[in-house]
Inverse folding.
């Protein structure tokens, strides 16, 4: 059962992260088209080869998103999917594309996630970030609509957004396992070292130390500013193809060997156990499906909206025992030169988070390493990558095991 | 507490299913759903029992006492509506009956908050909108 590992990522694009957008304003539907073109060019494939399409949504067309995209691209597809898993959407799109290809539904699928809110505005409207299209409205990922549990039981108390709920998780972690702030901060400083080897990262050329992290402003206790992602303009896409096309690809194929997914809750208040995150089951499924052990992994790209997310994902994905994440972080070098290379393109903490495209950052990170295209951050003989996706407040998580031939 | 500053914030709108919970709060009492078949208390209010989808939910009163499961002190507002209410003491309380409840802590200094501390309900009335919100303060253990 499971994936046979006969579909592969054969092309990708990840736009350079920008704090201030210099690329021309573009609607998300236009960004989707541009990302698709870029990723296909990278794969050496033609638009007419595409017969599968996966998206996270279209800002300009909340309903009928995939049909709107197919029409706009002029590409009729045999498999169309909108994946609504927040930051886990990208990893979720990759395994769905592989599954559809292995089922024979399609041969070449595009999975793209626009990552810039810099879109044209109608005359007389305010700044882009203030418009309703900025997904979720003023309450972030919490729905203010009548009948929504969040509107009724979370928003009235100000329990919304990301910083506070993740801080609540970190606080609970501290109460159960203790809290070595320096070991956790090291995750951010090691990743910054990686970003300093990636000219596309928003913090390229700006190394930081553990002390810098600890001394940065406290945003939601115990989370410091430098332990929290910063929004950037960007976007990313991958092309997933069947084995015949992949073997002829100009890029080294990145086979999708294992996957797992678990959707547990929306608001952490209702988690069965707040400190055992959904990735545990997802990673176990993915590794078992791939027939690969944790010790075989050459690099990991772990979804990193916050340092606490990385810490708990390392534990729950089985790279160390529960509660040992801090000593694991303190005793391993997460840089691309290190003994446990992780988030080698900077991670979202140091590359920047291009909205939902931040999840695709990790897919691209793993794929670039296996393709041998990671530049200065390239790991020698990188054949196996573990990629995680995380949506909501560690609510929904996806694990991928990727492998080169 | 200064009620006026909270009014501009988004308020809950009770639904047909959740109304007994809000009716209870208005009378400073806490009613929560219970499922005899699952042997568990349920929050937030639902039409069927989460996990089993059994159709035997009944409303029962609880004391509202519990322990602090986790919290954070937010020095930056979680949304612009809370810019005048800093720091926000955002908490998750675990009721003695089991379910957890999102809330805010009041009548406590941030550095006095401890996970696992006993907490007691504080009923915050908003007569202008006919609603009562349920917040929490450290419990007076001697009187508990």
């Amino acid at each position: 059962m499971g994936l046979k590992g006969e579909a592969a990522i054969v092309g990708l694009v990840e736009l350079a992260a920008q704090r201030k957008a210099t690329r021309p304003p573009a609607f998300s539907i236009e960004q989707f088209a541009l990302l698709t073109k870029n990723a296909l060019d990278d794969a050496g494939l033609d638009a007419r080869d595409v017969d599968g399409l996966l998206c996270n949504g279209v800002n300009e067309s909340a309903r009928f998103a995939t049909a709107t995209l197919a029409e706009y691209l002029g590409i009729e597809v045999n498999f169309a999917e909108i994946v609504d898993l927040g930051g886990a959407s990208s990893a979720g799109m990759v395994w769905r594309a592989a599954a559809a290809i292995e089922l024979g539904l399609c041969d070449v699928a595009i999975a793209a996630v626009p990552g810039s809110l810099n879109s044209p505005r109608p005359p007389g409207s305010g700044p882009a970030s203030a418009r309703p299209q900025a997904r979720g409205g003023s309450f972030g990922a919490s729905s203010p609509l009548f009948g929504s549990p969040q509107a009724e039981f979370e928003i009235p108390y100000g329990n919304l957004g990301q910083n506070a709920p993740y801080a609540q998780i970190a606080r609970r972690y501290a109460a159960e396992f203790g809290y070595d702030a320096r070991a956790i901060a090291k995750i951010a400083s090691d990743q910054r070292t990686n970003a300093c080897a990636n000219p596309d990262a928003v913090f390229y050329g700006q190394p930081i130390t553990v002390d810098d992290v600890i001394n940065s402003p406290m945003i939601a206790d115990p989370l410091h500013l430098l332990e929290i992602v910063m929004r950037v303009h960007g976007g990313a896409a991958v092309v997933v193809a069947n084995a015949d096309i992949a073997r002829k690809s100009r890029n080294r194929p990145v086979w999708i060997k294992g996957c797992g997914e678990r959707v547990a809750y929306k608001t952490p208040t209702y988690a069965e156990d707040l400190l055992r995150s959904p990735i545990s089951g997802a990673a176990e499924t993915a590794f078992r499906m791939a027939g690969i052990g944790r010790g075989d992994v050459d690099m990991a790209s772990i979804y990193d909206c916050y340092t606490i997310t990385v810490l708990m994902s390392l534990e729950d994905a089985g790279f160390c025992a529960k509660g040992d994440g801090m000593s694991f972080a303190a005793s391993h070098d997460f840089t691309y030169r290190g003994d446990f290379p992780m988030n080698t393109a900077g991670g979202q903490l140091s590359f920047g988070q291009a909205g939902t495209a931040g999840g695709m950052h990790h897919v691209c990170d793993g794929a670039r390493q296996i393709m041998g295209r990671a530049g200065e951050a390239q790991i020698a003989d990188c054949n196996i990558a573990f990629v995680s996706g995380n949506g909501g407040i560690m609510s929904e998580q996806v694990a991928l095991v990727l492998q080169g031939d | 507490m200064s009620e006026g500053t909270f009014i501009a914030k988004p308020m809950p709108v009770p639904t047909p299913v959740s109304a007994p919970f809000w009716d209870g709060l208005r009378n400073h009492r806490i009613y929560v759903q219970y499922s005899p078949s699952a042997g568990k208390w349920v929050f937030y209010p639902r039409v069927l029992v989460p996990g089993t989808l059994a159709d035997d939910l009944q409303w029962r009163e609880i004391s509202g006492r519990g322990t602090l499961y986790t919290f954070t002190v937010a020095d930056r507002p979680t949304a612009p509506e809370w810019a005048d209410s800093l720091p926000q003491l955002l908490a998750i309380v675990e009721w003695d009956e089991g379910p957890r409840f999102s809330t805010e802590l009041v009548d406590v200094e941030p550095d006095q908050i401890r996970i696992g501390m006993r907490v007691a309900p504080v009923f915050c009335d908003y007569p202008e909108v006919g609603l009562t919100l349920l917040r929490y303060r450290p419990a007076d253990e001697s009187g508990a």
Observations:
- Chain A has 13 helices and eleven strands.
- Confidence is low (pLDDT under 50) at residues 130-136 of chain A.
- The domain at 7-118+228-403 of chain A is CATH 3.40.47.10 (Peroxisomal Thiolase; Chain A, domain 1).
